[in-house]
């Protein structure tokens, strides 16, 4: 559905060349839900704008929904839906009119545009808002209307650029439920960008991590997390002396590594936290080290990003 080879885009900024996207090689198969995850400025929007024919690549090639983005941009546009970061509906128009007009712009006949609009409004829980003026919708309703506008011509592939940014947690969860239902109903391939770690983790079947214009990891969330070297065990003791002794004693645990002592706390990594913790507790007990708390944490996508780049994605999270 999406195949790129060496896709690159540079910009001239104050006399120098900025490589916003550097040699992107990606393959997305029909029906996949793929999240493009990366910090601000990583190159997500620039990539999306090339894939949706809004921006011409500097070099490389991209085939989207079977059409080349440079040789046949019209073909790409007919086959995809694109929901950008801004809103697509005009404030002073009625919801149903905006949807039907969008359908007409895509060459859908009026009667069909009307029936598809009714169906999408129902699927997106907007039927009650059909005759309301767009400006009167809530943030979540407005975002769902954007998605309806992106689907009115029944594209095989839907691009969503930061679809949930600016929504409260309840509206975000609700939006994802709707997107999941639309996929189940229409089999649409979805390619989205996000910088919300939890969202990429829970929603996407596959995550492409992008940094400085290049994909640095590609896989399911579990696959990516499995590459981080193990679970984190955090111990809190009564004193700095006890923390040092705890770290020394823990060195005897097979697979334990990356020891870090800070004040009364100790952190270490092990291959499997659930298996190592009982043995660690017995070892510390035998060494006479009293613990206040012990906690096992599974790796997160942020740990994945941290292990790949040495930086935390959370620093950039909105
Ligand atoms: N039209 C442009 N002219 C000059 N530089 C640009 C232009 N568009 C993007 N850039 C630069 O290219 C880099 C990548 O930007 P891009 O918007 O693709 O990142 P992003 O990952 O989508 O970030 P965000 O999450 O903030 O939207 C940034 O350094 C940005 O400043």
From TrEMBL:
It comes from the Bacteria. It is found in: Cell membrane. Residues 2-237 form the ABC transporter domain. The keyword Ligase does not apply. Transmembrane segments: none annotated. It is a peripheral membrane protein. One of its GO terms (biological process) is response to antibiotic. One of its GO terms (cellular component) is plasma membrane. Keywords: Antibiotic resistance, ATP-binding, Nucleotide-binding, Transport. The keyword Nucleus does not apply. InterPro entries: AAA+_ATPase, ABC_transporter-like_ATP-bd, ABC_transporter-like_CS, ABC_transporter_ATP-binding, DrrA1/2-like_C, P-loop_NTPase. It holds the Pfam family DrrA1-3_C. One of its GO terms (molecular function) is ATP hydrolysis activity. This is ABC-2 type transport system ATP-binding protein.
